[in-house]
Amino acid sequence: MNAPLTPMQALWAWKSHHQIGWSLIGDRTAPTAVLLIHGFGANTNHWRFNQPVLAEQVPTYAIDLLGFGRSDQPQARLKDEPPQNGTVHYGFDLWAQQVADFCHEVIDRPVVLVGNSIGGVVALRASQLLGSQSCKQVVLIDCAQRLMDDKQLATQPAWMAWIRPLLKTLVSQRWLSSALFRNAARPALIKSVLKRAYPSGNNVDEELVTLLFKPSQRNGATEAFRGFINLFDDHLAPELLANLALPVHLIWGEHDPWEPLDEAQRWNQQFECIQSLLVIEKAGHCPHDESPEEVNQRLISIINQQAT
Prior knowledge:
By secondary structure, the chain is an alpha/beta fold. The protein contains twelve helices and eight strands. The chain has a single domain (8-307), classed as 3-Layer(aba) Sandwich (Rossmann fold). The protein has an eight-stranded mixed sheet with strand order 1-2-4-3-5-6-7-8, sandwiched between helices.
């Protein structure tokens, strides 16, 4: 396949009133496709080293989850807040439905879903909605474990139970979540976080800082942040894996500072749907961008398995 060197970027009208950013490299008429789903605070451009390479094998799409990238950023409605016109409850059911609808309406053929961080949880939930006829495989790259979820309380220090009610009250306040976001959405701080997320230092460049910083300056950028940090009772990856019959593959950075490798190793032993675990040495939370050659090689192998 002769794929173009740069993605075709477009907007898709989801449910007639949300504009969703997406991109494609490759032939739209091919029988199968790959869909790349970014992590928290990222966007389609975070697949800068993967999408062009994968597109040499199969048409490769990337999507901006609602609230991120070029997608609309509607006002967040928390679980206990009354519905208001134009507000959304940010969470994994919302994002998974977005992905499932995109697969049906835009891609319109069987897909392999690839998700990084929270994009992994989205991919797992979306695969349930799509079913085995529409989703053939799922690849989780350092899937989010979401330790702040209420269902994870038993794994947390005892003092966490005491401060949890106060924490929930504080982060539900829009003024505080907005202040926290604006403090974090600064190039210097973004670069500092990236150096921790990418322990080898590979590919932490100005392009990466810019692609993460630019969407954070849009007017509604604080809303998805408020919605996400208030998700204390939502889907967890182990629950989804336990009820999944599709093949799942894990790719994990050896030194991920937030999602420990030992948890991925436990998943690999525990869940029958998991077919493989590839550990990327010296890499952190985003090995697809930090060590793209190794990740691309494994993704191509998985794609080729699907084709046979």
